[in-house]
Amino acid sequence: xxxxxxxxxxxxxxxxxxxxxxxxxxxxxxxxxxxxxxxxxxxxxxxxxxxxxxxxxxxxxxxxxxxxxxxxxxxxxxxxxxxxxxxxxxxxxxxxxxxxxxxxxxxxxxxxxxxxxxxxxxxxxxxxxxxxxxxxxxxxxxxxxxxxxxxxxxxxxxxxxxxxxxxxxxxxxxxxxxxxxxxxxxxxxxxxxxxxxxxxxxxxxxxxxxxxxxxxxxxxxxxxxxxxxxxxxxxxxxxxxxxxxxxxxxxxxxxxxxxxxxxxxxxxxxxxx
Length: 273
Description:
Elements: E1 16-18, E2 28-32, H1 34-39, H2 47-55, E3 66-68, E4 72-74, E5 77-79, E6 87-94, E7 100-106, E8 121-122, H3 123-138, E9 145-157, E10 161-171, H4 177-185, H5 189-203, H6 213-235, E11 237-238, E12 260-261
Antiparallel strand pairs: 1-3, 2-9, 4-5, 6-7, 7-10, 8-10, 9-10, 11-12
Helix pairs in contact: 4-5
């Protein structure tokens, strides 16, 4: 992957932790999203090299791999520090339209925010997110995209032993509402301004020179979230974990763990794994 950068890694150290993906023993490519790869001008001719990148065994040249810090309200309770516990932001790539996209490996190993977790993902959730996120995109619903799904050749241990996987996820921005809460909880107004200015430049550059740009940022995020949720409702999509760490300020659907679709005349149920 050429021309990769990471502007988020240039922010102060409180925003992230430098992190290397944990290598896996027997990676196998399950799927590459060739259409999305083409949009990102990623050369797919050398699939073995891509397998090394998407498994986390190799970090692309000039990439600055990091885990992002954020907080979140989870099921009514505020958790002042969460962060990427099993995901690593590899970098950012411009697509053919000139828009910058985050490239993240999910299930790529332990980070500074993993707490007691192993930083891994089972292959089932990887395939599930790949399929559902691309289906959402096809239905014109704002969402993160799936670039690749990898089998690691290793087991992860939950209730039982499961086959492991890594998802390569693409997003307009992985900054969350919980990222703002992280600094607000610390009353760190300086880094709040840094975060707000970075977010405006990245996602809403037309308001950067406005006198009330922070109020306009709040309004823009609220509007995008309202539009997103109305689109969810139009197809009967149920997110299942609408916590503030799962609300992207870009207005994209993110984190598909326990999601479901409303079934006609049948009560729905959601199980957390």
